[in-house]
Amino acid sequence: MQNYESTEAFARNLDEQDSLKHFRDKFYIPKQANGDDALYFTGNSLGLQPKLTREYIEQELKDWETFGVEGHFHAKNPWMPYHETVTKSLAKIVGAQEQEVVAMNSLTVNLHLLMVSFYRPTATRNKIVIEAGAFPSDQYAVKSQIQFHGFAVQDSLIELKPRDGETILRTEDILQTIAENADSIALVLLGGVNYYTGQKFDFERITKAGHAAGAIVGFDLAHAAGNVTLQLHDWNVDFAAWCSYKYLNSGPGGIGGAFVHERHAVSFELPRFAGWWGHEKETRFLMGDEFVPIKGAEGWQMSNPPIFQLAALRASLDVFDEAGMENLIAKSRNLTNYLEFLLSEIETDRIEIITPSDENQRGCQLSIRVKNADKSLFKAISMRGVIADWREPDVIRVAPVPLYNSFADCWKFVEILKDCLK
Ligand SMILES: Cc1ncc(COP(=O)(O)O)c(C=O)c1O
Questions:
Q1: CB atoms closer than 10 angstroms to residue 179
Q2: Residues 105/300, Cβ–Cβ less than 8 Å
Q3: Which of 173-182, 211-220, 359-368, 372-381 is the least confident region?
Q4: Average pLDDT of the chain, as a whole number
Q5: What is the rounded average pLDDT of the residues 216-228?
Q6: Would you say 17 and 416 are in contact if contact means Cβ atoms under 8 Å apart?
């Protein structure tokens, strides 16, 4: 850890030196009742609105007004191939080839659609491995897939649990569970960064272990996309899905994303649910009755995509491109390390950070466990202008986001927390 100091002057000095500090002005920061900026730490739940978003959406409203249906071809950014405008930036963010990613639907829908192709259980190999305490939607999705295929959840679901007295999973335990069930696992599906603890998993080793066991390996990147360095292609991950309303700032209910590794995406052996937008582009409008999938992740599309949502995502990704993912990660680590340092300086036994202290095992989120699940602390900081969130049973999550949070935000937050702990 760097030699940090818990003074306001030190925090402001870090902000002065921050080469990304001007990016904060590219976002709308919610205000407190007194007109000051709120201390917004929930970019892991809903990212803030880039100022560019309105312009991009208004362009589409204008083009719709001007061209009607012809906007599919004559809009400034024609709607027919509009989803392609975000592909390059998304591919950079998740570490993929362009043909391996597509923006479509929303997260849980994409998890289901990808499981249609990638969860192909047999009488002997039908188990799915997830984290115990995975986000509820993921649990519902995998359990319903198991049942849909006629298997019983208690037989086919393996939940990875931390050791007694521990809160995060050890990689060696994950690998061991996979090895021990090598004959029966069909799919390993983990949240790349766990929504509750903020733990980032070792994608590469888990993928390797899953493949060695003869299983498919997928990741839910809700808390990883735009937050941590991803190399999905090189890590050989089979598939992944994410939402874009968290770190990717595309707005509430924003369009999701999907990754299908090249080795699956260009072969047509996998079964899939088909729709016309996944059909080969050159012949889509011949209106034939035989489905010919597009090569690549685009072949998993079903419907023509929501242009306004794509416009919002495009605006945000332009900001990402300008900032550069590597620069963002470097700042993110510094911000989170600083926040961790400030928290560690508080003299109290009422809170503890459960997120791994190793910066390679987390993104920007820190999960603060409150002893005795006392929600009054969360309510008290909320009253003082902190926007964080409470996750049952006992955690306050705070995520300093490098695009718009400052070191001074972290310092102010911890001062408020200290006060409220008194
Ligand atoms: C890890 C994880 N999975 C799934 C979801 C559900 O996302 P959606 O409502 O976009 O399907 C969320 C939403 O926060 C999430 O954090």
A1: 12
A2: no
A3: 372-381
A4: 97
A5: 98
A6: no
- With a Cβ cut-off of 6 Å, ligand 1 is lined by 106-108, 135, 137-138, 191, 195, 220, 222-223, 243
**What's the DSSP call for residue 281?**
G
- Alpha-carbon distance of 346 to 57, in angstroms, equals 45
pLDDT at 1 over 70: no
**101 C-beta neighbours (distance < 10 Å), count:** 30
Probe residue for ligand 1, chosen from 104, 106, 137, 143 as the CB with the greatest number of ligand atoms within 8 Å = 137
Confidence of residue 373 (pLDDT cuts 50, 70, 90): confident
* Selection from 171, 197, 168 nearest residue 365 by Cα: 197
Instruction: Measure the CA–CA gap between 108 and 140, rounded to whole angstroms.
Output: 9
Question: What is Dmax (Cα atoms) for the chain?
Answer: 70
Model pTM? Answer: 0.97
Contact 225, 94 (CB under 8 A): yes
User: Ligand 1 atom closest to Cα of 45?
Assistant: 14
pLDDT at 269: 84
Ligand 1 centroid, distance to 107 Cα (angstroms): 6
* DSSP letter assigned to residue 47: P
Q: How far apart are CA 366 and CA 356, in angstroms?
A: 9
Instruction: Give me the amino acid identity at 308.
Output: F
10 Å Cβ neighbour count for 104? Answer: 26
Which tens digit of pLDDT belongs to each residue from 354-371? Answer: 999 999 999 999 999 999
243 CA closest ligand 1 atom index: 10
